């Protein structure tokens, strides 16, 4: 087995009794991909699964040459007592000689789509903190039962092969690997491990709340298992779908390399002939990746909307036709398709920019000012106001794409449009660069949201 490459064990561990705690030998196999890491971060909520992760990593790390482990726990603020639960996790970690950080979700508590909102907030905090600690891997305790539930949720939503691939054991998330070593294990083995360690896990009532889809599906699992559709079978389906999805992504990579060009303005262009020549599943995946890269979204649009866009593009007649989806404009011309960011109803955000400190703006551009630049500037879209101030109209650039280029502003005055190489007459000495990152995002198949990158 290769080590240090972020890859999981290739086969499930042989298990004779699902009530047995995990052994040290099994830990060696599960965590072998981490053997060359220097620092790893553990996501520990205080539930039985994540406490098993803490226990097992604590045992595994005690051999010489093992990475330093840092425990990250999130106070999600979704119910009373969540802060005390997070502090309890930190105390348990401290008793094992592990450093721990309590991360607190700020802002309004979500009242709609609670599961997705809580997940995004949690992963945003975890990935940011893991990077700040210098970790190369963020470990979560998702297991085979979680994987099976995820497959059923995706079926309920009408997902295709990428959705049914569900959670991947190891996913590159920028400079951080999200690693799920327990996807080959049933929940019962982790619970047994936690009990054997003497831990008292947190009981989260959300896990049984019928308002949430996952909780409703969890209640159905015993009935499905009795009919032969158990966690093992569903997880095996996910594994096979992941292999098929990987093959489609490989074919999509080839089309991107051969036929897609992303210019300095973060406009992606693909010849219609090349697009239509690709197999349908590749075209759909290409559209999904283009939308995520150009729009900066964490997740692809629902299949129904993506399929409608695909139908419009492949059935379009000669002439200009525009569509918008997922914050992106798809500009279908006779010979080529242009894909670029849509301003949207609420417009794009302005962010302060510090001299000498590069800023990722709108997940499309990396903008940087020289260290001696003024400190009262912001980065925001050029918009109609900025376009008229600097009188910008490059040949062949749609006005809508021009409006969403990054601009350097001082209050209501546009000083520079770095992606266009333009500056106000009085600001010729302002040194600023903007390099698009859409091309690099497009080149990497999105399997997990790139939180914090």
Helix content: 25-40%
CATH topology of the largest domain: Rossmann fold
Q: What's the end-to-end separation, in Å?
A: 30 Å
**What percent strand?**
15-25%
* SSE class: alpha+beta
Quickly list its features.
453 residues, alpha+beta, 3 domains, 15 helices, 19% strand
Please tell me about this protein's structure.
- By secondary structure, the chain is of the alpha+beta class.
- The chain has three domains: 24-240, Rossmann fold (3-Layer(aba) Sandwich); 263-342, Uridine Diphospho-n-acetylenolpyruvylglucosamine Reductase, domain 3 (2-Layer Sandwich); 351-440, no CATH class.
- The protein has 15 helices and 19 strands.
- The strands form four sheets. Strands 3-2-1-4-6-5 form a six-stranded mixed beta sheet, sandwiched between helices. It has a five-stranded antiparallel beta sheet with strand order 7-8-11-10-9.
- Helix 2 packs across helix 7, helix 5 packs across helix 9 (231-259) and helix 9 (231-259) crosses helix 11 (280-295).
- Residues 1-10 have low confidence and may be disordered.
């Amino acid at each position: 087995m290769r080590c240090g490459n972020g890859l999981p064990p290739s086969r499930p561990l042989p298990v004779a009794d699902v009530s047995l705690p995990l052994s040290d030998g099994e830990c060696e196999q599960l965590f072998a991909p981490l053997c060359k890491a220097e620092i790893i971060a553990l996501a520990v909520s205080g539930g039985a699964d994540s406490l098993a992760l803490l226990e097992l990593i604590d045992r595994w790390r005690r051999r010489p040459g093992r990475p330093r482990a840092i425990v990250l726990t999130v106070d999600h603020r979704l119910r009373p007592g969540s802060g005390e639960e997070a502090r309890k996790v930190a105390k348990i970690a401290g008793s094992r000689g592990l450093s721990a950080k309590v991360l607190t979700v700020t802002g309004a508590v979500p009242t709609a789509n609670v599961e997705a909102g809580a997940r995004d907030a949690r992963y945003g905090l975890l990935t940011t903190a893991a990077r700040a600690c210098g970790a190369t891997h963020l470990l979560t305790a998702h297991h085979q039962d979680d994987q099976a539930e995820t497959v059923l949720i995706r079926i309920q939503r009408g997902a295709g092969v990428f959705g049914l691939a569900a959670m991947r054991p190891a996913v590159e998330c920028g400079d951080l690997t999200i690693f799920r070593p327990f996807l080959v294990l049933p929940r019962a083995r982790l619970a047994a491990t936690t009990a054997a360690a003497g831990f008292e896990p947190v009981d989260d009532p959300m896990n049984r709340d019928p308002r949430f889809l996952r909780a409703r599906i969890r209640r159905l699992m015993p009935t499905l298992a009795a009919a032969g559709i158990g966690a093992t079978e569903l997880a095996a389906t996910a594994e096979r779908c992941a292999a098929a999805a990987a093959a489609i992504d490989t074919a999509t990579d080839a089309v991107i390399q051969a036929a897609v060009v992303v210019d300095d303005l973060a406009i992606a262009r693909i010849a219609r002939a090349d697009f239509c020549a690709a197999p349908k599943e590749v075209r759909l995946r290409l559209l999904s990746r283009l939308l995520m890269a150009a729009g900066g979204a964490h997740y692809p649009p629902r299949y129904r909307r993506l399929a409608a866009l695909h139908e419009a593009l492949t059935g379009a007649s000669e002439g200009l036709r525009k569509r918008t989806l997922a914050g992106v404009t798809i500009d279908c011309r006779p010979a080529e398709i242009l894909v670029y960011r849509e301003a949207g109803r609420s417009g794009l955000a302005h962010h302060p920019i510090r001299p000498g400190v590069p800023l990722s703006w709108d997940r499309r551009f990396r903008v940087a000012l020289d260290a001696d630049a003024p400190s009262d500037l912001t980065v925001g879209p050029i918009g109609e106001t900025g376009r008229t101030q600097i009188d910008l109209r490059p040949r062949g650039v749609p006005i809508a794409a021009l409006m969403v280029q990054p601009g350097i502003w001082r209050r209501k005055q546009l000083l520079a449009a770095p992606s266009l190489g333009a500056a106000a007459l009085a600001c010729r000495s302002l040194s600023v660069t903007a390099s698009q990152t859409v091309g690099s995002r497009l080149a990497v198949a999105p399997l997990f949201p790139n939180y914090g990158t």
